[in-house]
Amino acid sequence: MSVNINGIGIGGYQDGKQKDKKSKAGQDFKAAFAGSLFCQEEKRLDRKTVGAAGINIIARNRVTEAGVTCDSAIKECAVRNITMEESDYVKPCPADGCLYKVLVDTKKGVAYVEKKAEDGTVLGYEVEVSKVKKGDEDPLKLLAMLAWQKVVEENEEAEAKARAKDAVRQMKNQASENAAANGRPAEMTDFQRALLSFAEFVEDRIKNGEPKIPIGAQEFSETDWKRLLETFDKAMDEIKKEVQAEAEQAARKAEEEKAVKKAAKEKLLSKFSSEGKAPYSWLADESGCITYNGVVFSCDNERRCINLGDMSNRDNVLSIPLSGGGTLNVNRDNLGDLARAIGMFSPEDVKRIMTAIATDAQCQRKLLEIEEAKDDPKNLFRIS
């Protein structure tokens, strides 16, 4: 009987990929077998090969206590007592208290499964791979299929190596024939030398695999290094992106803080600025009055002046230009109040105010002397 080992029984498990059922309570063997049998095989085999049935099992245990099966794909057979070395696949199941060994016969298309319990009891079963139905989740069948897939992979790998060796051998023979045809076997062309060198390279890779560089207690091949560097480059790119994002965020935050500080500064300067307003208007309250040491000044933003006292009689008002622009209007009767509030003004304005008061006092004395001289003409010559 001729059997194609590359396809038997595998298609049935590919269609069962999406099945995901839960084990029922009371099925001790099924649950234990599911937990122990496939906990490691899930990591090794491709899910596309055995499907989700190898991960989540609703085991339909078709083997009775007497060892008789009602499934045509599984039948009880004589125990062969195969060794670990003879087995193609070995699976210990401590939770079930047994050891499974599988031996695959690719010519007959069957897998021999041997179960040895802790008490020494040994049972043998044969699983005919071609009769395994699609989506079948029987634990023994799944175990047989895992072993079958392992053998298939090993056979395919061996065939690939054999084909590669044949190709290398043909390349060497062709190079030798070409060199002999030229009559100068010792003087091969550059192409022939390159061909032989490549053939030796391929043969060495097939025999020994990729060269590995020892790094401490580990070894890395060129593929491992490439994979490691790709992972490192990917991690570095992600770190660079994060750093760049953080830098951009910090720059935006700095710009926002700069804009806020600039706005606050402009607001503060506009508050203290007297341009277009009465001098010292930033000290005024909501009513437009400045109160300092109990002295009240009224602000006139239109005329850019601050007033102290009664302004109805302009002849009795002293107007003093201030350094920042604008004018201080003081009723002469309120000069005492101005003295109490002199700390409100800047040093330069204080100097201006004192000079203006002194000048006004001198002018007032002169005017008084002139008025007195009018009454006594003799005093006109005494006015200096």
Structure write-up:
By secondary structure, this protein is α+β, with helices and mostly antiparallel strands. The chain folds into four domains: 10-154, no CATH class; 157-208; 210-272; 281-379, no CATH class. 45% of the residues lie in helices and 17% in strands. It has helices spanning 10-14, 28-37, 41-44, 47-50, 139-181, 190-208, 222-272, 335-340, 347-375; strands at 74-77, 89-93, 98-105, 110-117, 122-128, 212-215, 218-221, 289-292, 295-300, 305-308, 317-321, 327-331.
Q: Kindly give the count of domains.
A: 4
Q: In what range is the share of β-strand residues? A: 15-25%
Principal-axis shape: elongated
Q: Pick out the low-confidence regions.
A: 1-70
CA gyration radius, whole angstroms: 53 Å
List the secondary-structure elements in sequence, H or E: HHHHEEEEEHHEEHEEEEEHH
Let me know the average pLDDT.
Answer: 75
Instruction: Give the fraction of residues assigned to helices.
Output: 40-55%
How many beta-strand runs? 12
